[in-house]
Specification:
Elements lengths: L1 E2 L6 E5 L2 E4 H21 L2 H4 L5 H27 L1 H6 L14 H19 L3 H8 L3 H14 L17 E2 L21 H21 L7 H17 L8 E4 L2 E4 H23 L14
């Protein structure tokens, strides 16, 4: 049995400014995006398309806006609309946590559409370029959730599970006398960090090192994440849940299903079309 370490959510005080761990995890996510992007630009099939470090830096600005605005709006609309509409000031208090991946995903798609129009890039190439840099940033965000003691897991069926954890109830002050939720819990943010983030990256990065048909890399990421998230949702206390034919489906699974189905269809279309990333239709390879 483990006990959640309950670190102070504030990493450091800089005068009157409190720097939160959750915010630092987003800084880490963006730094990882830049570092991996620098490596990706050096891959031969990417370098052949003329990508530059300046493109990456410019794209990051758009991506940051997409992540923050889309992620927060997704949290408001997909998960807790009643709470946020009753407490609208909380929408701005992002340092408390509460960012929807699915909302951020949509926000980044819109941001990259805007950037591609500005840069004169093919939107499908842009999605394929950035997809392998996303999973580790997601993992950093989930670590921030764990530090904030957000997203508690379900009660474990077997209390002897070595990593079963006493989870703090964040509706009460954590110190000096912390209150815990009932029952030992799965540390679900760590599951999602490891599976939805690090494992997806370990599969996607090697796949993306070779030239693939347009949109195949982006679709592969969407498929891998959707499947991983659908699985890890079984260990997380759902924000809300519906019942389909006696089968409970959580909010996260409901939002991941369209990703899985859409990614499969796009992957089949991509390989059938068989146009290499960066190529024009006239450069189509034989199937």
């Amino acid at each position: 049995m483990l006990i959640h370490p309950m670190p102070d959510p504030v990493a450091v005080h800089l005068g009157p400014v409190a720097v939160h761990w959750y915010g630092l995890m987003y800084v880490l996510a963006f730094a990882l995006f830049i570092a991996l992007g620098r490596l990706r630009i050096k891959q031969p099939h990417i370098a052949a398309l003329g990508w530059k470090n300046e493109d990456l830096d410019d794209m990051l600005f758009y991506g940051m806006l997409g992540v923050v605005l889309g992620g927060r709006l997704g949290e408001v609309l997909f998960y807790r609309p009643a709470f946020f509409f009753a407490n609208p000031i909380e929408i701005l208090e992002v340092w408390h946590g509460g960012m929807s991946f699915h909302g951020g995903f949509l926000g980044v798609m819109v941001a990259m559409w805007l950037w591609s129009r500005k840069a004169g890039r093919n939107l499908m190439d842009v999605y394929d370029f950035i997809a392998p840099m996303v999973p580790l940033g997601y993992a950093a965000g989930r670590l921030g959730n764990f530090i904030n003691a957000e997203l508690p897991g379900r009660v474990v069926a077997d209390p002897s599970l070595p990593w079963a954890m006493m989870w703090p109830d964040t509706s009460y002050p954590l110190l000096p006398n912390p209150v815990f939720l009932q029952g030992l819990r799965h540390p679900s943010p760590l599951y999602q960090m490891l599976i939805d983030g690090i494992l997806v990256f370990a599969i996607l990065w090697p796949y993306a090192r070779k030239a693939r048909p347009q949109l195949a890399v982006g679709a592969m990421y969407t498929l891998l994440y959707g499947c991983a998230r659908f699985f890890t949702e079984y260990f997380r206390t759902p924000d809300w849940e519906v019942n389909w034919g006696g089968i409970p489906i959580t909010s996260g699974q409901m939002l991941s299903l369209p990703m899985i189905i859409g990614a499969l269809l796009i992957l089949m279309w991509s390989y059938k079309r068989n146009v290499v990333m960066g190529a024009t239709p006239a450069a189509r390879k034989p199937a």
